[in-house]
Amino acid sequence: APPSEVQDKIFFMINNISAANVEIKAKEFIEILKEQYYPWFAQYMVMK
């Protein structure tokens, strides 16, 4: 799992996505989440 600081940023972004800001949030997300954490994020999205 990514560091807790990164997790907090991801959780905040996911909870605040809207149709109006999805492109901006996607760009931010790409910058924050490293490829090695993709499996963690996939599990988070399925379980939550």
What do you see in this structure?
It is a single chain. The protein has helices spanning 4-15, 22-32, 38-47. With 48 residues, it is mainly α. The radius of gyration is 10 Å and the shape is globular. The chain is 69% helix and 0% strand. It has one domain (4-47). One of its GO terms (cellular component) is CCR4-NOT core complex. It holds the Pfam family CNOT1_CAF1_bind.
Q: By helix and strand content, what is the structural category? A: mainly alpha
Largest sheet composition: none
In N-to-C order, the SSE pattern is: HHH
Binned strand content:
under 5%
Terminal CA distance reads 15 Å
Number of helices: 3
Q: Approximately how much helix is present in the residues?
A: 55-70%
Shape designation: globular
Number of strands: 0
GO molecular function: molecular adaptor activity
Organism: Nymphaea colorata
Pfam families: CNOT1_CAF1_bind
Protein name: CCR4-NOT transcription complex subunit 1 CAF1-binding domain-containing protein
